[in-house]
Fold this sequence. Notes:
The complex is a heterotrimer. By secondary structure, chain B is mainly α. Helices cover 76% and strands 4% of the residues of chain B. Helices cover 34% and strands 24% of the residues of chain C. Chain C has helices at residues 44-52, 74-79, 97-106, 125-137, 153-166, 183-196, 209-215, 233-238, 240-245; strands spanning 6-15, 18-28, 33-37, 59-64, 67-68, 82-85, 171-175, 201-205, 218-223, 226-231. In chain C, helix 3 packs across helix 4 (125-137), helix 3 runs parallel beside helix 5 and helix 4 (125-137) crosses helix 5. The chains are: A mainly alpha, B mainly alpha, C alpha/beta.
Amino acid sequence: MAFYQAASWQKPALITFGIALLAMPAVLTSFDQAFYIGFATRVLIFALAASSLNLVLGFGGMVSLGHAAFLGAGAYAAAICQQAGINEALIAFPAAMAAAGLLALLVGAISLRTRGVYFIMITLAFAQMAYYLFVSARAWGGDDGLPLNGRMQFAGIPMSDDQTLYFVAFSAFTAAMLLFGRLADARFGRTLQAIRENETRMAALGYPVFRYRLLAFVLGGAFAGLAGALLANLTGLASPNLLQWTQSGTLLVMVIIGGVGYLYGGVVGAVVLLLLEESLVGVTEHWHIILGLLLLAIVLFAPKGVAALFRKRHG
Amino acid sequence: MTQLILEQALNGLQFGLMLFLLAAGLTLVFGIMDCINLAHGSLYMVGAYFVAAAAQAADSFWIGLGAGVAGAAVLGLLLELSLFRQLYQRDHLSQVLATFALILIANEAVRMIWGPAPLMLNPPEALSGPVELPLFGDTFFYPAYRLVIIAFGLGVGGLLYLLVARSRVGMWVRAGAANREMTEALGINVRALFTAVFVFGAALCALAGGLLGPLLAVQVGMGESILILAFVVIIIGGIGSIRGALVGALIVGTVDTLGRALLPTLLRAALPADAASTLGPALASILIYLLMAAILFFKPQGLFPARA
Amino acid sequence: MADPLLDVRQLSRRFAAVDALKAVNFSVNAGEVHALIGPNGAGKTTFIHHVSGALQPDSGSVHLAGRDVTRLPMHARVRAGMARSYQITNVFPGLSALDNVALAVQGRADAGSSFRFWRPVRTETALFDEAAGHLEQVGLSTQKASLAGNLSHGEQRALELAMALATKPQLLLLDEPMAGTGPEESARMVELIEHLARHITILLVEHDMAAVFRLADRISVLVNGELVCTGTPEEVKSDAGVRRAYLGDHL
Lengths: 315, 308, 251
């Protein structure tokens, strides 16, 4: 596989897409569909979370099955900040990123010593450990989670209004995608992708492989933490369910159906999966079975994901 | 206190043996085919449902157990032939996605067939009471059914150990786990061998699910939490090693059970009551993961790595 | 005489019940080409793995320019001035030849940190200018833009060499650079190594005896994990033990 390269149509497409996202709340409101602003915010947040996993999985080649732990850690960090009297997102969100990044540092330092099936199982086990830790932490609500006392404020502006939260999520998402895009083309991203292809060769060229992997793992964790902090504000709750391993599985599914290693793979996957959920839930309560069959079909017939299919058609 | 410790140690042994039944099949699948199977826990769940449904229909626990295990073996065979064969050559990511999809399908299918409420599975009438055990001149009561599980676990575990460690088929399996290409080059039909291992693993899952059914609830989602414990067992023991699975399962079973039972008490003796009641349950629930991390730190390949 | 550039002392390694290396003493002096030969399975590649840091010995030490590197991981040894090529071609097939070498340049300590997150690599012309120079040195300047996977076998071997050179090593470990090449490619490779040997110290593992006797200043013979003889090509040729153990079927 070659280094990631943005296709030529990508930039104009992104600008159009960005403008559409900016205009979306106003359009939805004018059509009396303001209810969907919350849903759009949720999609943006999961697009951010899935993209942070894509950095680890797609660019770093690390099949982590514990990414939800960082999402959850971010959510709890935000809620704990508020509990401690810090209601400003400009402080709480970086704190959430730091907390999730620190957790990723601990998990990564141990699990990155292993490879393959081992790495998958260990990241899963550590995430489960984080889950149990929060479930049994009575000071933070135990099973019930830690509720937020209303949404926080961003630079003094309260996010209680759905539109404000939407724009904060949009900014966070845009900033993260801009960073990931630059990073993929910069020395760090190239190094990371080359390590994904052949780590022994990179070590034989003098690269301290472990450090690059670990940093990518920590960065991915930190941005998942940011997504978690946003999610806690959207739902008003830091719930241990966020850390459940099925959540990690869902993030992984998003990245895979979107396309592993494509910069916007996580975004495409989050949009597809959440839209699918939203439309199937109305049809049958057993929509999971349809999703499962779809995923099986993707593994068997479209192993490179939806983004790859799209790319092939466009040459 | 001695009674409590003894009771919990026996519970730990019993849980560890059941974990071994789950981990044994799983570690061989991982070891031989380098294939990750997240749906192993679903086989455990479906197996337990099979046993519970058959036991209700036949009004006999033992007939239910036999029928359920056979049913799970057939399901395992179908799954192996239709799906897993195609997954072995694929990357780990595809295996994760496909088996994750199987979990979604299995959970939802069970919910559609048997409904969201847990299924009741009663232990055999004769085993429902406690038995009296001698203990240093004193007597000690322990549920008869749990003793039977321990006996089952020791019997099946011992048999499995002998099968893998001593028999010719077992030699092939171990050879396959250590070096698959070489085993194929020696003319052993690894495909058929693997189908057999997979089916056997599925049957062991159902056996564990059926035996644990009367103690834990037979319900949707029961497979996932135990699957992760089985993973911890394999990580500690080393992928592909039956001996590792046995040792890992016993460690995880006893440490987890004893930790949950005794740690809060121990902490209360050492710490102020307030701190102890906060820390106790939290520490107990993550004890085995801390243990896993510690073992990994010193032995990244686990205690008994199958590959050199 | 000055200390040797590479000094391996009493290096031993057991795999299960097999002594792969038995107390091997071996040195490479600065400026020389020292060839290591021996029959298949003698432990040559195992030895190279231990020198390069891919494997750790049970006992013994490896010194590079007077510094003990025995416990250093591979990447740190590369940074200390030791580069290797692989017996089986080991390049990035999906990247262009130029990108392959640029990665090697970028990995060097004096090329700056690779923990850079913002500036696109393609604007770092210094990396690619230097990489182009290395490609020219191995005769691949016309193939800069070709995908490494599309190069011929001999060209891939040359690319591998360019990548090793780009790390600016004091010592170059070449593990069978002629493996799998045709006679013409092989002759070009010998010329290339001869040219490189003017600036750089080389430890050469090779089966092609004509190439070894043409290139080497000194030759060591490894048989069953034991070093049986070290000397000039003439001395090795006339050593009775070597003839018996190894060269008998070649000369």
